[in-house]
Specification:
About 30% of the residues lie in helices and about 15% in strands. It contains 8 helices and 10 strands. The chain has a 6-stranded parallel sheet, with helices on both faces. Strands 1-2 form a two-stranded parallel sheet. The protein has a two-stranded antiparallel ribbon with strand order 8-9. Helix 1 packs across helix 2. The longest helix is centred in the N-terminal third of the chain and has 17 residues. The relative contact order is 0.22. The model has no long low-confidence stretch (mean pLDDT about 85).
């Protein structure tokens, strides 16, 4: 009269996606999961550690800005529009607040990306529950985390083109982060050939991307049909990556209890 139903528990499979780095500005540290039967995790930085110390970022970046502006060059930073750009603004605000750049203390900063502009304005809203304690203290003290004097958020293509006609030394943050598309390619075209300028990479550059080729030291690149000599200083800032490093990956895996079957 009554059918007997046998319910068998299926195994839990978990794929990590990109695991976040710890001690990053603005956002909270990642939380840990505790239970899964099978776990697949990313390993972007599985063979190396990140440098620690937020103070080191601001000081090292300030030195790059100082030396570049002293030569009359621009600092070009390819950066992903959401997340990375906002972290950079956080550091640049600190640099200006502490007066770490002496050659051009009032240097202008341009965020040349409509998407980055839209993402940055979100941080002006209610961030309760999203940002870390240090960032929340700034908000409660009335300090605007991502804004400062001489910060400009450009949107139109005309504004973007005008940046390369302006000879004043400046910071230009633009997407895409790996230089394979977007407005950053125009800024590279106008600055890679200038030995007084600096290109600062602040994120992972995958094999085959223009960003990786520049980090590998190619003598020239082709942009918009033109061959551009690479004379600018190329700097890698891997510590700013939002991916977890070796220890972060291991700590995340070791938090499971009981251990996954595989």
């Amino acid at each position: 009269k009554y059918a007997l139903t046998v319910i068998q528990k299926l195994p839990d499979f978990l794929f990590s996606g990109d695991l976040g780095n710890i001690k990053q500005p603005i956002i909270r540290d990642p939380s840990y999961l505790c239970e899964a039967d099978y776990v697949i995790t990313e390993s972007t930085y599985g063979d190396r550690e990140h440098r620690e110390g937020e103070g080191e970022y601001t000081e090292d970046l300030a030195k790059i800005l100082d030396s570049t502006f002293a030569k009359g060059g621009n600092v070009i930073i390819p950066a992903f529009a959401v997340g990375r750009t906002q972290e950079l603004l956080y550091f640049l605000r600190e640099i200006k607040q502490k007066g770490l750049v002496t050659s051009a203390p009032n240097f202008p900063v341009y965020v040349d990306s409509p998407l980055a502009k839209a993402a940055t304005t979100i941080f002006a809203g209610d961030l309760t529950g999203y940002i870390d304690e240090e960032a929340m203290e700034l908000v409660e003290d009335g300090i605007r985390m991502l804004t400062f004097d001489d910060l400009h958020l450009t949107e139109s293509s005309e504004e973007s083109k005008a940046l390369n006609a302006d000879k004043m030394p400046k910071v230009i943050i633009s997407a895409s982060g790996m230089c394979d598309a977007g407005r950053i390619r125009h800024h590279l075209k106008h600055n890679l050939w200038r030995p007084e300028s600096t290109v600062v990479f602040v994120g992972y550059q995958s094999e085959g991307s223009l960003g990786r080729r520049l980090l590998d030291g190619v003598p020239e690149v082709k942009l918009f049909g033109e061959t551009i000599a690479v004379k600018a200083q190329i700097v890698n800032f891997p510590g700013l990556s939002s991916h977890a490093g070796l220890s972060g990956l291991l700590n995340w895996i070791q938090a499971f209890s009981p251990k996954p079957s595989q």
